[in-house]
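User: I'll paste a sequence; please echo it back and then give the predicted structure.

Assistant: Echoing your sequence first, then the prediction.
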Amino acid sequence: MNIDNIFSLGELFEKVQMENIFPDGKTFVDCIPEFELAYILQRYEKRKIEAGFNFSFFVHEYFIEPGSISSGYKSDTGRPIQKHIDMLWDILTRKRRETHDSLINLPESYIVPGGRFREIYYWDSYFTMLGLQVSGRIDMIQDMINNFSYLIDLYGYIPNGNRTYFVGRSQPPFFSCMIKLLAEEKGLEIVREYLPRLEKEYNFWMNGQQELSSENISVNRVSLLPDGSILNHYWDENTTPRPESYKEDVELARNAADKEVRYRHLRAGAESGWDFSSRWCKDVKDFSTIHTTEIIPVDLNCLLFHLEQTIAEGFELAGNKKSFEKFIALAAARKKAITWCWNEDKGFYFDFDYVASAQKTSLTLAATFPLYFKIASARQADKVAAIIEEHFLQSGGLITTTETTKQQWDAPNGWAPLQWIAINGLINYGHNELAEIIAKRWMSINEKVYNNTGKMMEKYNVVATDLLAGGGEYDAQDGFGWTNGVYLALNKIFK
């Protein structure tokens, strides 16, 4: 039994999602079907015409709802937060199991984020690993990296998460960062060991570059800029509503001139991990103006710069001078091209709209990635730091963008991965005092919410620290993998 092709349920699937049979659209696509889908459809067609047919009852009869992540676990706020997180790793651990649902089985154990997120997520996992490293769980880090290697071998890339409905898109490419993290514990030979998978991921992101031309400036995830340089953007193979957010996508595309284009922009926004943010919109106050695939994100290209550097390092370790020099040159070219995202007058990095051939104007924490990966000059870093302190710093840490909207990757919300990137980016350029202020404010709000609720949250309201974070397509989630990881890692630095 499987639910690989969720759209094979046709009317049944659409009715479940559009009529909110489950409050969260992700619930149904995570359900376990009691029988083969063809048989369930046969029963539905026969029973739906019967008098007194109860659709909700039918769905619950033929599909088993996914269980809670932390079923049976109750936190104790009397326990120190570090101890709580150490104990929570086991609660958030999943092992290989026979699956009859949308889950893609993985060979090794892994950590899930928590809440509604019952599967591994790509970029979340790097920040989770930071905490696993502090907790001494190096074997789990390697297991998770091996799972991602398995997915690269299976699909040619790491999907958004290990669900069949995520196939077609990836997430911010932190795999090279994971490899370097493991190398800190097991030596640089790790980089050479995983080199074939690093190359495969790189080829995925660069797929189509040979087809670029002045008449065809964008193919898949690559874009050709006016000076002949190539940078990347987010994309998705599919042009349909996301199964896990079907109703939201259908409603947003209802009046679109081209629904398929709108769906791809939404899916690309999900690939970015920032799902969603005014960052991806032409009009920051109008979500229907989303145009993600037309935007070259500064953070994505910093990550790919690191991937190129790591591949070069792997070839150097392997004694392959020609390939080493090739990837060193590719990294240097990308570093130069990222200047398309630098605005000298404003002293900040911005995403670049390659269709309009103009920088975006939104101030976002993506601007700290060039500091994290040491791409910025000292002067550029100083300018970015000044704007971070003036426009982003709040009582609970850093807001994600300076726009206050209903999207969760905007103000007033703060997110653990972006705090980590910003803090360490600032440290790289000697802005230690500002970095420490951000870290302590962020850890303080983590501790405050934990002391009040016994929970670590997916995101926090860093402006009004007495309020929970909100916005987005689902309720605030607790658990929570990357928050746990970043807290432990920051506590080790700033305790």
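The CA atoms of residues 305 and 334 lie 6 Å apart. The radius of gyration is 22 Å.
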